[in-house]
């Protein structure tokens, strides 16, 4: 039996669309037991009443993809079947990387049973293929902040940690927003000026995080490629952003495809103040939700138990 702790993630960070991701100190757990008679999936927490418990489950699909990638002799413990337990502790379809967490957790757990195990780069490439982009899965696997791009032969990535500690205020609306719906509102092409706008700010964002020049995060997290278009699905977004900045946030962005909003703050007290300000703004628009203060997870997906 192998248990893996895997973090929630926030992707894009505003300007780094489909490229930047950060691991958060909010975790789910994936437990894999093998061999087992057939495939069994148990689910606790989020999605327990709605997620499939058979081969349609994305965790099962991730393990099957891993098995298809290796020699049969490597995957002997998994050949007869396996039992999965998913303990989902952060919300689904809220822009917190729930699908990436499940896929990465399942891959890391299954990889721990292989002899020999696959290197991390291969796991990341498999996870990115399954997810369709690399930002969330890279952060979930590697921890910290990941800069990741998909190449023809894998994923190119750099992991970094900010030069100074940060706290993130998360506003998690009650109403979900499926990723496919949030992607459908995006245009197939964008004006050159908007592409340059994001390129310059994404570069500024990475530089600011690595040097600790957090005074520029407000500008560095601005975006013209996805957030303005997704605003039609989240009409309260500009007011919530303004509330976060007015309350002292260093920078603010839509977390992944949304609807969660992530505001970066210098300390825990400021983050709590910012979170409450965002919550009040959301409430003023007749919407419900919850807030949470987190830090960055430095470890990424981690085997916590093996027996």
Commentary on this structure:
This is Homoserine kinase. The protein is 37% helix and 26% strand. It is α+β, with helices and mostly antiparallel strands. It folds into 2 domains: 2-161, Ribosomal Protein S5, domain 2, CATH 3.30.230; 167-294, 2-Layer Sandwich (Alpha-Beta Plaits). Strands 1, 2, 3, 4, 5, 6 and 11 form a 7-stranded mixed β-sheet that branches. Strands 8-9-7-10 form a 4-stranded antiparallel β-sheet. A hairpin with an 8-residue loop joins strand 1 (2-11) and strand 2. The longest helix has 20 residues, at 192-211. It is globular, with a radius of gyration of 19 Å. The N and C termini lie close together (5 Å).
